[in-house]
Structure formats: structure tokens, C-alpha cells
Specification:
By secondary structure, this protein is of the alpha+beta class. The protein contains six helices and eight strands. The longest helix has 15 residues.
């Protein structure tokens, strides 16, 4: 599906409680080629079961009985299947989509997957995790060691095209920053209906 040379490798930083959805957790990813001063990070909301499965692996805890993702790994071993890589290839309507690229040495296959499951399996196999530049642009934020956030390219909202304004509005809604979302929505209305007067 994707040219590996055009993909951005990610690493898993950890799991935190989601501030947006009670009972959910946020999986934090970071571009692998970060600089000492700054990086770009992608937060992904996951359920409690998936968060536990990922955290168990990150903390190198051995559960008393195999978890669901451990069973996948056991089946991979039994049938000689290797996970080559995971690609987070889409972000639509607030949902990430991922693909598992697997092979048994003869047959190569692409398996669509929930991103939380794909990452839990990738961590257990040591397979690399990638995303596309488009997903990175849509979902990541800049992180600096001084703790300050800043847009990748500071520009006036009025100068952005409608498609980028719509994506920005969705991010504000996802973060429950409704006043900012309303402002962007008003700018979109002005751009799409320039003959109409404002409120």
C-alpha cells in the first residue's frame, strides 16, 4: 500500500489516562527521527483493555495467563508468520486505521487492523511502526523540551484553505476547545459564502 521510503517511523512513548474520554487512555507516539530539542507527537485514544495490553509489554510484565495479543504472537510462531511492519495509514472522523504487513516467506499479506491492536502486536514482535505524512500533518503536535507547544507553521486562520480549516476545526472539537472551533467555523462560512454578511 505505502512506499516505505515515504513513511515516517514512530516509537511508542507510553500510556496516560485520557483527559477527554473518561475510562479511556491515550497512547502517545513520537517520530523516531526527533531532534534533541523537539519532536512531533501523536496521541491516540485507546480502550482500557488495549491500554493494559500495551502497558504490560512496555513495562515488561509477564501476565499469569496470555493476553489476546500474546495469542496472536503464538499463532504467528506456530505458522511461521512474520510481522514486517505496521502502518497507520488513515485518520478519518476521529478514528485511526492501520495495516499489518505480514509474510510467511512465500505469501505476503496486508491485514486491516485497529491501531491499538496493531501497535500491541508490533511491540511484541519488535516490528517497526510507521505513519504517512498526511496522518502526521492531521494529528500530530510539536513538542519541545521546554514544554511549550507551537504550530508547525504559524499562519493567520483567514489565509488557510477550507480543507485545512475543516481539519483544524475538527481538532478543536476533539480537544473540546469549542470557542476556537466556532471561530474557525465562522471563517469557513465566510470563505464558502463570501456574499453573505457576518453576524
Amino acid at each position: 500500500m505505502e512506499n516505505e521510503k515515504q513513511l515516517i517511523e514512530l516509537k511508542v512513548l507510553g500510556i496516560t489516562r485520557s483527559e477527554v474520554q473518561p475510562g479511556a487512555y491515550a497512547l502517545l507516539l513520537e517520530n523516531a527521527e526527533r531532534t534533541p530539542e523537539q519532536s512531533r507527537r501523536i496521541p491516540i485514544v485507546v480502550g482500557a483493555a488495549e491500554a493494559q495490553s500495551i502497558a504490560v509489554n512496555l513495562e515488561q510484565v509477564m501476565p499469569s495467563r496470555p493476553l489476546t495479543h500474546d495469542l496472536f504472537i503464538s499463532m504467528f510462531h506456530v505458522y511461521g508468520v512474520e510481522l514486517k511492519r505496521v502502518v497507520i495509514y488513515s485518520f478519518k472522523d476521529g478514528v485511526f486505521a492501520s495495516m499489518l504487513y505480514v509474510t510467511n516467506g512465500t505469501v505476503n499479506a496486508e491485514i486491516d487492523s485497529r491501531t491499538s491492536d496493531a501497535i500491541a502486536i508490533a511491540l511484541r514482535t519488535g516490528a517497526p511502526i510507521y505513519t504517512t505524512q498526511e496522518v502526521m500533518n492531521l494529528t500530530s503536535y510539536e513538542w519541545r523540551l521546554d514544554g511549550n507547544y507551537k504550530p508547525q507553521k504559524p499562519v493567520r486562520l483567514e489565509d488557510l484553505p477550507v480543507d485545512k480549516l475543516e481539519r483544524r476545526m475538527q481538532r478543536y472539537v476533539d480537544k473540546e476547545e469549542y470557542e476556537k472551533a466556532a471561530r474557525v467555523q465562522k471563517i469557513i462560512a465566510q470563505k464558502t459564502n463570501p456574499t453573505q454578511s457576518g453576524e
